[in-house]
Amino acid sequence: MIRTIASTARIATKIIKDGSNSGRDKYCQKLEDKLYNRLKKYKRTQFDYIGKNVHEILPTKLIQVEKLPETFENCNGVVSLAQEVEKTVPADIVGYIVGYIVGFNKDGKKKQFGGVKMEVLMHEMHHLFNYLTHPKVPNRIYKVSKISSKINFEKFFVENFQSTMPPKKCKEATKKLLKREEKHKIDILQYFRYKLIDEIGAYRSGEHYSNLYSSKSKECFQSNIDAMQLETKLNDVTAILKKTLKTEREGVNQKRGKSIISKGRYFISHLSDLLKINHKN
């Protein structure tokens, strides 16, 4: 299966310049600062103003900002992949990630940005900018979504990782899941790792910009990070991933070693036969 992220859904490395993780993180924060500096001038404005400013900052990217339907009543916001299936390409190419849809739930008590609080707004914008600057993240999300029709990995992540479930139970649930999906365990672990890093960053961005926006704001999303023990869960996933990669590499090296030994034995046996034939002659 080939996955492609279109130029409308990523920021090229030549623009970011520093293609390392830290370089991409800095460019992500640069985009957050740029958007915040535009929005901070307004205490009250229409919802459409969010999308307008995002499009002015990133005019060549396909980004749709919209209000979430009523079915998302327990969700403040979400960033989804916009995919397009190309009919003219081979069947093994399932689809392209062409952009992103950023959805917000309106809080009727809030007047700013059509009912979207600053901490929620910048939380979701961190997700968006992180996807654009780290295309490996949406690529992994897309890849994992195609693994199984029976398992909703996003739901698993929310219920186990992005919740108050204790890390020990979360680790046990993850190991059970990996046994069911043995062939895809590395992809799944990388997916969880990327999602946890992204979520921790989003909570911190929401807190940072909310507190900058209003001196009265006492938002502390570190409390959410601590309550869900996201950093501990990230450490656990990283440890399982390292162990899994080590085991996989050892398995590959053993196979290579056996193959070399087998070929060596064949060569010696073949050489021995040739020497016997020559000796008879």
Helix share of residues?
A: 55-70%
**Apparent shape:** globular
Number of helices: 10
The main sheet comes to: 4 strands, mixed
What are the secondary-structure elements, in order, as H or E?
EHHHEEEHHHHHHH
Task: Give a quick rundown of the structure.
With 281 residues, this protein is of the alpha/beta class.
Structure overview:
This protein is of the alpha/beta class and 281 residues long. It has 2 domains: 1-134, no CATH class; 147-281, no CATH class. 60% of the residues lie in helices and 10% in strands. It is built from 10 helices and 4 strands. Strands 1, 2, 3 and 4 form a 4-stranded mixed β-sheet that branches. A hairpin with an 8-residue loop joins strand 3 and strand 4 (93-104). Helix 5 (136-145) crosses helix 8. It is globular and about 85 Å long. It starts with a strand and ends with a helix.
Task: Supply database-style keywords.
alpha/beta; 281 residues; 10 helices
